[in-house]
Automatic annotation (TrEMBL):
<dbReference type="GO" id="GO:0005737">
    <property type="term" value="C:cytoplasm"/>
</dbReference>
<dbReference type="InterPro" id="IPR003694">
    <property type="entry name" value="NAD_synthase"/>
</dbReference>
<keyword id="KW-0436">Ligase</keyword>
<dbReference type="GO" id="GO:0004359">
    <property type="term" value="F:glutaminase activity"/>
</dbReference>
<dbReference type="GO" id="GO:0003952">
    <property type="term" value="F:NAD+ synthase (glutamine-hydrolyzing) activity"/>
</dbReference>
<dbReference type="InterPro" id="IPR014729">
    <property type="entry name" value="Rossmann-like_a/b/a_fold"/>
</dbReference>
<dbReference type="GO" id="GO:0009435">
    <property type="term" value="P:NAD+ biosynthetic process"/>
</dbReference>
<protein>
    <submittedName>
        <fullName>Uncharacterized protein</fullName>
    </submittedName>
</protein>
Amino acid sequence: FSSVAAIVSVMCHLVYEACQESDHQVLRDVRKVLRKEAEPDYVPSSPQEIASGILHTAYMGSEKASTDATKGRAQTLAQEIGAYHSHLLIDPLVKAALAV
């Protein structure tokens, strides 16, 4: 998770810099990816804004093996990058799969 998130973050920074330099092709692509095509003057305000539209992360913890610290680190990383983030316990899913 963290290595992919870091790579996406770097890419969002590069795209943001190109947008700030008025690279018209990059701006068209960003508007398309972020579904802002109806806003011809749209320019992202930060790399985090770009990331929030393309990167969704999830912390999938378990009751016995996860800690608040690891959950918190995942949340912090997602916030710093700008990713949409959620968390859930996977124990009910594991129990259901084992019951089959």
